[in-house]
Amino acid sequence: MNNEILIDEQNIIEQYLFNVFEVIVSTLETKLQRIENLDRAVEHLMRRVEALDSRITDNIDKTDSVISKLRSLDSKLVKPLGPLVDNKLDMRLVSLDQKVSDIDNKLNSLKNQLDSNFLASDDINAEASEKKPVSLSTVDISKILNGELEALRGSTTNLDRKLQFHINVVSESLVRC
Question: Does residue 172 lie within any of the structural domains?
Fold first, then answer.
């Protein structure tokens, strides 16, 4: 009987150790699963961080490119004009000033003539202040003339219809009377 009790105690101890071992293994499996899940989450976050880092690098490169282009434009805008450009501008300003002075003199002369009631017919000449030659080829002139003729024909036809309508109205009213 002592032997049986020892065997029973030994079985109980073995069963207890087996249960403890199962609990430890189950707990370790759960912990290992959680570690694997965390590892996958960290890998996913690392991929996202790498993608964001790549996008930030691209944005920095684009920003640097834009800044360099802006600096280039700024230097072109701030760069002093060459003496040739200044000379041309000065010449154009002098020419413009001369034209304005000529117009002012003519206006003063006309004002004086109007004030004294003396205005020669040759003094007033209606023409453009700057004449620009207009050159058209014969094909262009033909097209323009044909267009004008077609417009004239259309207007004449329309006028003829309206006149015919009024003639008919007047004829009918004369017949009724």
Answer: no
CA 12 to mean position of chain CA atoms: 86
Q: What is the pLDDT of residue 132?
A: 66
pTM of the full structure: 0.34
Whether residue 103 contacts residue 109, with contact meaning beta carbons closer than 8 Å, is answered with no
Which residues constitute the domain of residue 55?
Answer: 1-81
In a domain, 74, yes or no: yes
Tell me the pLDDT tens digit for each residue of 66-120: 999 998 888 887 766 556 666 787 888 888 888 888 888 888 888 787 777 665 5
Number of domains comprising the chain: 1
128 located within any domain: no
